[in-house]
Write a structure and sequence with these properties.
By secondary structure, this protein is α/β, with parallel strands linked by helices. It has a single domain, classed as TIM Barrel (Alpha-Beta Barrel). 43% of the residues lie in helices and 15% in strands. It contains 18 helices and 15 strands. The longest helix is centred in the middle third of the chain and has 24 residues. The chain is globular. It starts with a strand and ends with a strand. The structure holds 4-nitrophenyl beta-D-glucopyranoside. The site of 4-nitrophenyl beta-D-glucopyranoside has 12 residues, from loops.
């Protein structure tokens, strides 16, 4: 039996655009994902989040399912255009009411709400009028929106995440064009990333000044990072793996912990990487109360010879900026996303974070896998997901044993949902959703996770 500390938080996560639907209801404005998904060719099969799991209407039933699962915490995101249809100005009372009732329903079931303020659904007017994350003014808009949320929900919510995976917003949204707003550029990702960081810092500053003293919650940025293992023991490949990690996680975590970007990014990117003023550095430094990590996979890294293959682009960003060639070990099991299943990668990444950021409290705010699940005779067997979760939660246990301060773990995801550019073709949930009828069927992994929570560990 691998037992966890009594206070360990067992949760699961989802996000607004992926589950809510009701895209034109309740006074909601459009987001860049509404527009992107409706643009021909941007998502697989032209799928959109117009309806998806219809959680907006079915949230009570969903929270009851979470309670059956034994979840202690549920992490969701707020749709900015549901709160501010144009991204600024007065809040929309119907939007406030929806999240308020969701929070109350969770609390009634003893499930602790964790809120991400931004999980990629930017109000489209901010994109059209201001170029979205390319405009420095967006930091103030975001802080104003965040303050509305702290004011409306902070009496009942103590766990806040500012941005979910700014790396994805910057790199997939502005570099590779795979996510909204679908731009392709070698410089915009670094500019967008800069303003994402400043928006985070401004929102945290607002929380700490005006809300934290009496609301007594905690707040952090939520970063994603995969592990990069050197392909060989050569000094070049070790340096390549380290460089890849600094371009991935260091990009968004170094400024939050030490006030500036990794030196290697400055060296390699030159003027494409914006500079912080002294005042901004001060605002950023120490702007997370804990370390929120989303983690999915591992790849091998070696020093590139300048000839970057497509794999380097799709899985880790703009390879030629980093001089890193990524590859996979052919013996590794792959998920339905083609992502490698390597539990020890999480163990090593937790060690890297522990060392680099002075032993922060770490919450794993997403981890999970897509598998080709099928409903057969009313049940959904997903043994590969159970193996995946068992392996990754086992890696967390090893990290704890080594003295790394991991405080909680959230499975991505509570139920199947709209998987961005992959539409409904990929299933990440512990609950199966029949998208034709909206019916929910807990998979075998849901039962397995409920037992894990009940045992507070792995058998
Ligand atoms: C995360 N990558 O996305 C998101 O937070 C979720 O909304 C999403 O459904 C989940 O992981 C599964 O994809 C990521 O390319 C998308 O490294 C892409 C990457 C990482 C995370």
């Amino acid at each position: 039996m691998k037992t966890f500390p009594q206070s360990f938080v067992w949760g699961s996560a989802a996000s607004s655009y992926q589950i809510e639907g009701a895209w034109q209801e309740g006074g909601k404005g459009l987001s860049i994902w509404d527009v992107f998904a409706h643009t021909p060719g941007k998502t697989l099969g032209g799928h959109t989040g117009d309806v998806t799991t219809d959680h907006f209407h079915r949230y009570k039933e969903d929270v009851a399912l979470m309670a059956d699962l034994g979840l202690q915490a549920y992490r969701f995101s707020i749709s900015w255009p549901r709160i501010q249809p144009d991204g600024r100005g007065k809040p929309n009372p119907e939007g406030i009411r929806f999240y308020s009732e969701l929070i109350d329903t969770l609390l009634k079931h003893n499930i602790t709400p964790w809120i991400a303020l931004y999980h990629w659904d930017l109000p489209v007017s901010l994109q059209m009028e201001f170029d979205g994350w390319l405009n420095p003014g967006i930091a103030d808009f975001f802080a104003d929106y965040a303050a509305i949320c702290f004011e409306a929900f902070g009496d009942r919510v103590r766990n806040w995440l500012t941005l979910n995976e700014p790396w994805c917003s910057a790199m997939l949204g502005y570099g590779l064009g795979l996510h909204a707003p679908g731009r392709h550029s070698h410089s915009e990702p670094y500019l967008a990333g800069h303003h994402l960081l400043l928006a985070h810092a401004r929102a945290v500053d607002r929380y700490r000044r005006d809300f934290q003293p009496h609301q007594k919650g905690r707040i952090a940025i939520c970063n994603n990072c995969d592990w990069r293992e050197p392909l060989t023991g050569s000094p070049q490949d070790r340096a390549a793996a380290q460089r890849a990690l600094e371009f991935f996680l260091g990009w968004f975590a170094d400024p939050v912990y030490s006030g500036d970007y990794p030196a290697v990014m400055r060296q390699r990117l030159g003027e494409r990487l914006p500079c912080f003023t002294d005042q901004q550095r001060e605002l950023l430094k120490g702007s997370s109360d804990f370390f929120a990590l989303n983690h999915y996979t591992t790849m091998l890294a070696s020093q590139s010879n300048g000839q970057i293959t497509s794999e380097a682009y799709s899985n880790g960003g703009i390879g030629d900026d980093q001089l890193v060639q990524l590859s996979s070990d052919p013996t590794w099991v792959k998920t339905d996303m083609g992502w490698n299943v390597v539990p020890w990668g999480l163990r090593k990444l937790l060690g890297w974070i522990h060392e680099r950021y002075q032993a922060p409290e770490i919450f794993i705010t997403e981890n999970g896998c897509a598998m080709p699940d099928q409903c057969v005779g009313g049940t959904v067997a997903d043994p590969d997901r159970i193996t995946f979760l068992n392996g990754y939660i086992g890696a967390v246990h090893e990290a704890l044993a080594a003295g790394i301060d991991v405080k909680g773990y959230f499975v991505w995801s509570f139920m199947d949902n709209f998987e961005w550019a992959e539409g409904f073709s990929k299933r990440f949930g512990m609950t199966y959703v029949d998208y034709a009828t909206g019916q929910r069927i807990p998979k075998k992994s849901a039962q397995w996770y409920a037992n894990t929570i009940k045992n507070n560990g792995l058998k």
